[in-house]
Amino acid sequence: MASRTETDEEAALEAIATLQNCSGEQKKAQEEIDTLLLDENPFANINELFPLYDTLYFRGLLLRDRVEVSWSSRLTLCAGICELLKDNAGKYRRIRVKLSEPLLKYRTREDTVNTFLHELMHAYFFVTTSFKHSREDGGHGPGFLLLANSINNHGSYFITVFHTFHDEVDSYRTHVWQCNGSCKDRPPFFGLVKRSMNRPPSKSDFWWTRHEAECGGEYTKIAEPKPTKAQIASLSAKERAGRQKNKINAWLTPAADAGPVDAGTEASRRPVRKRAADEQTELTPKRATVECPICNARVAETSINDHLDNEHSS
Ligand SMILES: [Zn+2]
Ligand SMILES: [Zn+2]
Ligand SMILES: [Zn+2]
């Protein structure tokens, strides 16, 4: 086992090194994760995924140090947290990852998995740095970015430095349905269901029955994605030329006000884990500001975590 007092960056490099040449155990974990994420079940079983991710990405150190994972019905400020609790000796050495049931229950499994991996990374850094895990940059310093990038590349995940959902994530889900019931006035989703697949809300969603009981409204489709490659191919040459110009403009304009791209935003550009049916989704350009999920104010993307800490932490 490696030393217990690494820096975030050293810990990230140690984890990344294991991915260059995966062990048999890692490969087996990878296969099991793929199987779990292949079916159509929208629910992510974090207890099943936890030991597999621990083996694949975190050197088995999370289970060794008894990191706990659970769902919370009271956590509403962010989608997930990694908290330190007092152990039997009264020291803050118990690590617990909690995911927000209220914020994630209407989201896709990809969101849950990406949030889960983000929080497991914090747990991994607490374990490997003897709890010195950098609090600078909100714990999302160079070591965090390094590992996030590697895991994103390795498994086509979409781990960002954010603890909340925002336009960046939403921009991948371009099929949108609006509920006409009471939930349309309630944060954080205001009755919106956004998906990368053209799969309308239905009985196959695990939250369907609950929504029927609590809201009872009906969903109407209000937005569609851009045309697929096949659809574009069938356009006339003239239509295609016009489209191409719009696309180029769309990419140029936001980039101009977005400023330089740092490692963090690069990490957050990775595509979400995709299934075959999602392939038609095109990435949309990144935006410089995001909407605060609590007060709905427009906030610079780079300062959303500060905003949440300063304005909304209790
Ligand atoms: Zn974080
Ligand atoms: Zn509703
Ligand atoms: Zn706010």
UniProtKB/TrEMBL annotation:
GO terms for cellular component: chromosome; nucleus. Keywords: Chromosome, DNA damage, DNA repair, Hydrolase, Metal-binding, Metalloprotease, Nucleus, Protease, Zinc, Zinc-finger. Residues 253-285 are annotated as: Disordered. It is found in: Chromosome; Nucleus. It comes from the Eukaryota. This is Protein with SprT-like domain at the N terminus. GO terms for biological process: DNA repair; proteolysis. Residues 44-222 form the SprT-like domain. Residues 289-313 form the UBZ4-type domain. Pfam families: SprT-like (PF10263), SPRTN_ZBD (PF22934). Belongs to the Spartan family. GO terms for molecular function: metalloendopeptidase activity; polyubiquitin modification-dependent protein binding; single-stranded DNA binding; zinc ion binding.
